[in-house]
Write a structure and sequence with these properties.
Elements: H1 2-6, E1 13-14, H2 24-32, E2 38-39, H3 43-46, H4 50-55, H5 58-65, E3 70-73, E4 76-79, H6 96-102, E5 110-113, E6 120-124, E7 127-131, E8 144-151, E9 154-161, H7 164-173, H8 179-187, H9 193-202
Parallel strand pairs: 1-2, 4-5, 5-7
Antiparallel strand pairs: 3-4, 6-7, 8-9
Length: 204
Amino acid sequence: MADVERDGVETVLFGGDLTWGPKPSEALALVRSVPNARFVRGNCDREPDEWERSRLSAEGIAFLEGLPGRLELDGVLYCHATPRSDEEIVTPATPDEDLAEILAGVEQRTVVAGHTHMQQDRQIGGVRFVNAGSVGLPYEGELAAFWALVDAGEIELRKTPLEVDRVADAFRRSDWPRADEFLRENVLVSITREEATAKIEARR
């Protein structure tokens, strides 16, 4: 948020899966406190699991479930995974022809998504498809906050360093059932783009 404030960003758009992780209620309170924030719903927001529900208020759950699946701002279409699904997979290995089919019928010239936790910037026909990355669980070979700055149609992929010890401590203090797993595999050791792509593609 310090980088966002320094750059004079007018609107922060969160791309979904807001509470999936070790501190769901704290994360939701933080993002909702950001002035002029906008949101699109992720697949985990649409269906919070039992543990998340036990940590969130009924109002918080209703807020998550009621978020829009897509949102257009200044001619840019924002979504969680793809314009037609909050679970569809697009990785760097997705063929151009498959991505063209996914984007067929999209009127906007730029689509910004997330879901697969890896930054991408691809031009498919007349549509630019950008994955902004992941702030909380990146698959980039290092633990950092990966995001995108959108300004008058121009997009800059950004990275903000994180304090690994503080992030690791949040996992250690949490009773999230998957905390130990993700601490070992995604915080103390960061998965690379190549490793993540191979794992995701193998599950297709």
